[in-house]
Amino acid sequence: MKHYAIVEMDVTDRGWIAAYVQDVTPMIERFGGRYLARTSRLEKMEGERAAPQVLVLTEWPSREAAMAFYESDEYRPYRESRLAGARCEFVLVPGEDITGAARIPE
What we know:
Layout: E1 3-11, H1 17-30, E2 34-39, E3 54-60, H2 63-70, H3 76-85, E4 86-94
Antiparallel strand pairs: 1-3, 1-4, 2-3
């Protein structure tokens, strides 16, 4: 089942960004993921919480592929630099409808 990683980010130190984008983008692809969105152009439509500065959405072929990337030794230093230079909310979401009403492609 496909999984989607959603990262909401407020950058506090931009020093990590260039290396992260350059190195992590192809790394995600090597682990089977792909970027669906990486943007600061957000249009808040509802809710009390402030919109993040940046939102990143990646698609993964499975939970296992996403976790293999996230927990890899190769990604670890980039994850640490991101966490040191930004406030983040990072969630992994299965591509499913728990009600069964929607048809979600595999």
